[in-house]
Amino acid sequence: MIPSQQYPTISRRALDVEDYIDIVRRHTSWIMGPLFAGLVISCVVAFMLPNTYVSSAVLRISPAQVSETLIPSTVSQQMNERIAQMQQQILSRTSLSDLIQNPTLNLYRRERDSQPLEDVIERMRSQDIRINIVNLPGQGSRPASAFSISYAYNNRFKAQLVVQALITKFMESMVNVQRDQGKVTADFLTDEIAKARTELNRLDTEITQFRVQNAGHLPEELQVNMQALNGLQMQVSAVNQGIQRNAEDKMTLETNLNTLKMQRDISNEMNNTSAESTVSRVHNERLAFLNREIGDLEARFTQLQALYTEKHPYIRDARTQLQIKKAERDQLQAKEDQEAAKPKPPPKVNTNPLVAQRVSEIQGAIDMVQTQLRNKENERLTLLKNLDQLNKTIATYQSRIALVPANQQKYIALAREHELVQQHYLELQRTESKATTFDDVGKHKAGENLEVLDNASLPEAPTAPNRWLITGIGVGLGVVVGIFLTGIKEMKDTSLKNLKDVRAYTNLPILSSIPLLENDLLERRKRRLSYVGWSAAVILGIVAMSGSMYYHFYVLTS
Fold first, then answer.
1. 523 and 439, same structural domain?
2. Does residue 5 fall inside a structural domain?
3. Which ranges of the chain have pLDDT less than 70?
């Protein structure tokens, strides 16, 4: 078995500038080939891509000419939300489909022949149309009220027409949004006002029925009832004082009457001094005393009635004492009547004219006092009748005041609900008036309007593709590929290239060098084949680049 021979590993020497120049000279075709291929491919790609023209316009939602403090807007959406809402409507499938298939525009004709319409619409919506909010100069931190519309297409005139069509759609959408929102607001307010009016009428009916059913017992009449009750109590006090004065007057008159009767009896006794006359005088004095006590008791009983109820002990005691005194007076009066009914001897005739005149005067005074007593009695009966009527009226007002707390909660609830519904109804009426005024402002073009700041531009030069950039990138990639291939080929070639390699790898002195002698016929054939190959490649590259240019200028732009 032959042992394997181990070869020493020799590292390559460091290359200098001359070595790199030799490498480029030896592998020129490997560098120029990819470079030319990159030029041709990038040129074909650049001219095969269609031109893209971008037309743009700027629109602004101008504020209302009438201050919102005077006429508030009924549109509650923010500007960005409103623009987004209009954008959704305008970029909908139906809207873009009508725009694409418009005979005047006839957009994406080749794409529609090879792709579904849905894909074409999605491309137009997501790639070609751009709607962006912009900040106008001087707005600062205020919300932007302007937005731009741009459209990219391979035909600059159609791009401009599409932007103009989108502007028209935005203006129509703005008008429609304002009209629809105004109509929705008006319908809503009309329904709400009708409901509020119905509710208000119901509460009015309930409150009216409650007031009729509880007349005099309403919380709002409590103060009136209290004032009336206080007035009645003052009247009761005045009537009690009148009854007391009447009793005092009666006592005074009865005392005068008894005194006059005693004077009359004394005058008559001047002619009659019998025992019967003396007994009668004693009875009259006792009867006058009882009448005075009964008058005092009646006055006190009347005062107690004004202060206490009938079941109060003071009332019962006063009534008992009054009944006892009246019974005693009635017994004494009955005895006196019985004595008066007995036959008496005829009185002696007083022949003294002075005594007769005195008796006549006393009798006249007695008659006058009796008349006054009858008047006082009538006055007392009238006062008692008024007192009874006042007590009944006081009881009525007291019952009204007692019923107020029971009705107060329900009445307050009804009144509060009525007030809330009335406020809501009035607020709805004010809002409806504002909405009507705002609609009138919109009809006179004094509200928010959509105005065009910059009309749809007609692009003069395409924005894409950048052919010089594409060509430069292609040439650069070709150079990189060529250098990469040259490096790979140089790494695989382990032959000695020049005297530097011989000295480095053999460590031998070099006395002279013999140039490489090749067959002239083979050399000429190799050179001829190289020329033919490069000529064919150049011709094909020029033809490819010319064809792409022709396609660009005569096919794509047609």
1. no
2. no
3. 1-11, 63-80, 135-144, 178, 182, 210-222, 225, 269-286, 336-337, 339-352, 355, 400-412, 414, 434-435, 437-448, 515-518, 556-558
Please state the domain count of the chain.
Answer: 3
Closest CA to 463 of 206, 156, 209, 175: 156
DSSP letters for 515-546: -----HHHHHHHHHHHHHHHHHHHHHHHHHHH
- For 261, phi then psi, to 5°, come to -65, -40
Ramachandran sector of residue 7 (left: φ over 0; alpha: ψ -120 to 50; beta: rest): beta
- b (16+ CB within 10 A) / e for 69-97: eebebbbeeebeebbeebbeebbeeebbe
Domain boundary among the residues 285, 314, 342 is at 342
**How many CB atoms are located within 10 Å of the residue 323 CB?**
11
Are residues 336 and 419 both part of a single domain? no
| pLDDT tens readout for residues 486-520 | 888 888 877 777 777 777 777 777 777 776 666 77
Query: pTM of the prediction?
Result: 0.50
The owner of tokens 């008058």 is 295
Q: Which residue has the tokens 């590292």?
A: 11
Phi, psi of 51 (to 5 degrees): -70, 145
Residue 226 main-chain phi, psi, to 5 deg: -65, -45
SS3 (DSSP) at 272: coil
Residue 258 and residue 369: Cα distance in Å, rounded?
10
Judge whether 229 lies within some domain: yes
CA distances from 126 to 57, 212, 275 (A): 18, 72, 145
Please give the structure tokens belonging to residue 62.
């101008």
- Same structural domain for residues 332 and 389? no
Domain limits at 542?
17-49+477-556
Considering the domain architecture, whether residues 158 and 122 belong to the same structural domain is answered as yes
Residue 544 lies in a domain: yes
Q: Which two tokens stand for residue 530?
A: 């190289």
Q: Quick one: 275 and 265 in the same domain?
A: no
Residues 6+ apart with CB under 8 A from 432: 186, 189, 190, 193
* Residue 407 sits in the same domain as residue 368: yes
Q: Do 142 and 225 share a domain, yes or no?
A: yes
**Full strand arrangement of the beta sheet holding 129-134:** 129-134, 146-153, 53-62, 449-454
First to last CA, the chain: 80
SS3 107: coil
- State which of 431, 464, 497 marks the end of a domain: 464
In a domain, 2, yes or no: no
- Whole-number Å distance between alpha carbons of 445 and 252: 99
Do both 446 and 425 map to the same domain?
yes
Q: How far is CA 250 from the centre of its chain?
A: 79
**Spatial contact of 294 and 380, defined as CB atoms under 8 Å apart:** no
Structure confidence by residue, pLDDT tens digits, 536-550: 888 998 998 888 888
Residues listed for the chain: 558
